[in-house]
Amino acid sequence: MAGQFEATVDIDRPVEEVFAFLADGENDPKFSPRVMEMQRTTPGATEVGTVYASTVKDAGMTTHRVFRISEFDPPRRIRWTETSKNMVTVPEGGYDLEAADDGTTHLRVFNNMEGHGVGKLLAGFALNAARKDGDAFAHRIKDAVEGA
Questions:
Q1: What mean pLDDT is predicted for residues 106-111?
Q2: What pLDDT score does 118 carry?
Q3: What phi and psi values does residue 135 have, to the nearest 5 degrees?
Q4: Residues 83, 41: Cα–Cα separation, whole Å
Q5: Does the pLDDT of residue 28 top 90, yes or no?
Q6: Which one of 21, 29, 32, 101 has the fewest beta carbons within 10 angstroms of its own beta carbon?
Q7: Cα gap 38→32, rounded to integer Å
Q8: Handedness of CA 145, 12, 17, 83 (dihedral sign)
Q9: Closest Cα to residue 92, out of 60, 68, 62, 116?
């Protein structure tokens, strides 16, 4: 495994509202500029087993990614697993949410990243880029949720 990036942020919204926003993976393009499109490919509301497919642009390369929700515990926890075969993948990522007494939400977002084949050489670069952008990424989530 190449490693993990994570970031935290406090969002000025109740935990249920933040969870609902993040549980809808189709909101990802609102805070992740690398996600060109995202769509749920399974029917119904998000739950364990729900699948999302995305088109992503990283370092000038467009890839298609498929994620399956592996854990769904409203309003505290969401986990996903990338099932697509790309050079660098996310075998586990997720959100941890915690309600604060003042009605805000503490959010932790993380992705474990690993390289495959030639991607083993690229995974470290991808991980460093994700870590460098981590705080900004968390703040883009904050801005998107608070603006929704």
A1: 97
A2: 85
A3: -65, -40
A4: 13
A5: yes
A6: 101
A7: 11
A8: positive
A9: 68
Q: Please name the residue that has the structure tokens 């970031």.
A: 7
* Confidence bin at 96 (pLDDT 50/70/90): very high
Beta bridge partners of 66: 53
Residue 58 — very low, low, confident or very high, per pLDDT cuts 50/70/90?
confident
Which of helix, strand or coil describes residue 74?
Answer: coil
Q: Helix, strand or coil for residue 39?
A: strand
d(CA 123, CA 37): 23
Distance CA 48, CA 42 (A): 11
Helix (H) or strand (E) holding 63: strand 61-73
Residue 39 confidence (pLDDT): 97
Token pair recorded at residue 90: 């996310």
| pLDDT tier, 119 (very low <50, low <70, confident <90, very high otherwise) | confident
